[in-house]
């Protein structure tokens, strides 16, 4: 399996920290990258304010996309947390965000049911099915 995206441990830790801080509400955000390497993790507000689903207000998404463009990067994907279930896209995730989970967008799901041992997995959604992707943690 090819590597879908590369990021630093600090960037991965940013997503995990956000997930832990927002629990029991699902955390969510956007991922900026250049040439398949993450340049920035951008926290968003979960408009659903729910432990079972998330959404990002379209106007907030637009502001993030404009900042990503201004920085010379591109929107590479999204992340969200699961506070009580494994880090696998749920049927609700697939239904609500399906078009935005698939290639070229990578979607990280951070499982924080075991707060001491968060689990992070990356996905594409193709034809309504989750397909796990590899990611590489870079030095630095």
Automatic annotation (TrEMBL):
Keywords: Hydrolase, Metal-binding, Metalloprotease, Protease, Proteasome, Zinc. PROSITE patterns: MPN (PS50249). GO terms for molecular function: metalloexopeptidase activity; zinc ion binding. GO terms for cellular component: proteasome complex. InterPro entries: JAB_dom_prok, MPN, VirAsm_ModProt. Residues 5-129 form the MPN domain. GO terms for biological process: proteolysis. This is Proteasome lid subunit RPN8/RPN11. It comes from Tepidiforma thermophila (strain KCTC 52669 / CGMCC 1.13589 / G233).
